[in-house]
Amino acid sequence: MAAQLEAVLAREIDVLFVTNHNTLDGYRQILEYQANHAKFQKITIYPAEEVTIDTGGHVLAYGIHKTIRPGMTLGETLDEIKRQGAVSCAAHPFAVSNGIREKALLCDMIESFNSNNVDRFSNIVASKFAHDNSMPEVAGSDSHVLTTLGKCINTVEAEENSLDSVLEAMLHRKVKMACREYASHDELYEHAYYIIQSSRELLLRHALERHSRFYWVVKWALDSYLGDYKSPMWRSVAAFSLYLTKRVSEKVNMKGHSPHVFTNRQWVKLIKMSLLP
Question: Which Pfam families does the entry mention (predicted)?
């Protein structure tokens, strides 16, 4: 917690929404740590959550007071956000695998810039969509590693620094993107390591249940990667994966290919699409 809050101070951020995936635990933990360290008292920390809906898409819920259960439909999720008096935002809506695309229009706001969308096409389309539909825009650091915290900063013109006032200002378009920076390739690789490390048991269970013949191959690959993800072999795999992601994003977001390959997680088709001219 100390390192994260030190980074917040270094970036001169005075208000912070903590948006862990499908939980408010991170918010509660950082609030508890802050309460015991006077150095960080001037930082205002507000609750939020990045909710995974039934399609795998992500919706940000700013200002909730109770965890929103993942796996609900978009409509159910938005209803619960509204019931809690919070503000909804479509997270990285045109990202390769976990955006809600045009359904972002149902949210209060749209994240039109995401630091991890280094394919850039996802952000270009999101920005155009926001402008075409006159939606309030925010930028998101989507930070899972320390060095990306504060890559994006938004300013909110609230009457006072209170949660209700900040949410009211967000709903009334009094929010502007003040800083937008892309994550570096090294930061993306570190991000991927964090995600895979935290998902190891889930991935192994999925392999055992769905692809039992390849379980030991998957286990070897995971353990090899987690043991030395900076090795030349795994860096090459990561770089190639990033290249394929950019190719798929360009074809779907810029050249009119069907986005259903994202929704249905048709990975074989995604790989073929990325490799073909």
Answer: PHP_C
Three-state DSSP class for 198? helix
SS3 content of the chain, % helix, strand, coil (to 5): 50, 15, 35
- Per-residue pLDDT of 32-64, as tens digits, reads 999 999 999 999 999 999 999 999 999 999 999
Q: Which amino acid is at 262?
A: F
DSSP line for 121-175:
HHHHHHHHHHHHTT--EEEE---SSGGGTTSEEEEE--SSSSHHHHHHHHHTT-E
* Domain extents in the chain: 2-183, 186-275
Instruction: Render 89-131 in DSSP notation, one character per residue.
Output: EE-STTSTTT--GGGGGGSSEEEEEETT-TTSHHHHHHHHHHH
Dist CA 51 CA 30 (whole Å): 19
* Residue that has been written with the tokens 């394919």 in this structure: 119
Torsion of CA 249, 250, 256, 262, to 10 degrees: -10
Quickly state the pLDDT bin for 25 (edges 50, 70, 90).
Answer: very high
Q: pLDDT by residue (tens digit) across 198-245?
A: 999 999 999 999 889 999 999 999 999 999 999 999 999 999 989 988
Mean pLDDT of the chain: 93
For the domain spanning 2-183, the CATH number is 3.20.20.140
Angle at alpha carbon of residue 97, lines to 93 and 99, rounded to 5° = 15
The span from the CA of 44 to the CA of 98, in Å, is 29
Structure tokens at 47: 């609750």
